[in-house]
Amino acid sequence: KLSNRLQMIADRVPNGSRIADIGSDHALLPTYLAKDGRITFGVAGEVNPGPFDAASRQVLECGLSKVISVRLGDGLAVIEPGEVDVITIAGMGGSLMASILDAGKNKLANVSLLILQPNVGEDQVRRWLDENGWRLTSETILEEDGKIYEILTAVPQKSSEDPDLYQSRVLDEKVTLTKQRLLLMGPYLVEEASEVLIRKWESELQKLDMIQAQLAHSTAEASKAKALAIGNEIKEIREVLDCLR
Ligand code: SAM
Asked: Could you tell me which InterPro entries the record lists for this protein (predicted)?
């Protein structure tokens, strides 16, 4: 049985897809999809030998070697252009994810769907998609075992007629949701304003409060500047949360 997080990612893969799961670790996602008859072909990509071996064993044990190809390599280097329709990348930081997508741009020409689950740095993934012609189509937030995860989907060919998801807007006639804030919190997630989203940002506030308290002990100019920036960040998040609640 998959974790709820991986199940939600699996649920977003259209039937009959050819997928590449990059950073597949034990290849749980592609083997689940193949067993379920949901994919016709899969690549499990891994850059590290340990997880690569684990993925190879899992695919062999499941008798899925004809459907899933396990490949050792960095990011999208493991796929040929046109080989897959869907790419899933889950369980790594947003900046690594954005750099994998950026380095593998030439592999994305025939890809029709990206399903991305960054563990942190979601804003960097949204920004990469926005700046590289991908349209964010959905965002999901879930909590499992005390951790909060976001799952983003995106499709190619953002057109100039699409509404700008990150256009800054005013909440409650006073608080401005800036582009930067929307990239951080997620335009659909903010719209939905779920309890999990509020909990996520309350816990981010607690972390920032702690950092600010530590910086308050320092007299260094750099620390003072940092404390000021964090203070502004805290104020902005509080204002937005007050409007969302
Ligand atoms: N995708 C699985 C999941 O969500 O449960 C596994 C996530 S695991 C925490 C992250 C995996 O990404 C690790 O197995 C790591 O070796 C792999 N990884 C990290 N950087 C990578 C890269 N540049 N290319 C391919 N895999 C990478």
From this structure: SAM-dependent_MTases_sf (IPR029063), TrmK (IPR006901)
- Distance from the alpha carbon of residue 116 to the mean position of ligand 1, in angstroms: 12
Q: Coil, strand, or helix at residue 235?
A: helix
Cβ atoms within 10 Å of 16's Cβ, excluding its own:
11
The string of pLDDT tens digits covering residues 198-229 is: 999 999 999 999 999 998 888 888 888 899 99
Q: What is the pLDDT of residue 100?
A: 98
Residue holding tokens 């070697």? 65
Distance CA 19, CA 84 (A): 5
Which one of 12, 33, 47, 149 would you pick to mutate in the ligand 1 pocket, going by the greatest count of ligand atoms within 8 A of its CB?
A: 47
Give the model's pLDDT for residue 221: 87
Contact 63, 89 (CB under 8 A): no
State the DSSP string of 127-156.
Answer: HHHHHTTPEEEEEEEEEETTEEEEEEEEES
**Tokens 């190619």 appear where?**
156
Report which DSSP code applies to 218: -
Q: At 45, which helix (H) or strand (E)?
A: strand 39-46
Q: Give the nearest ligand 1 atom to 51 CA.
A: 14
- Flag whether pLDDT at 158 surpasses 80: no
ipTM surpasses cut 0.85: yes
For the full predicted model, state whether its pTM sits above 0.90.
Answer: yes
Determine the Cα–Cα distance for residues 112 and 1; give it in Å rounded to an integer: 27
Provide the sign of the torsion angle of the four alpha carbons 49, 68, 85, 114, taken in this order: negative
Report yes or no: 154 and 116 within 8 Å, Cβ to Cβ.
Answer: yes
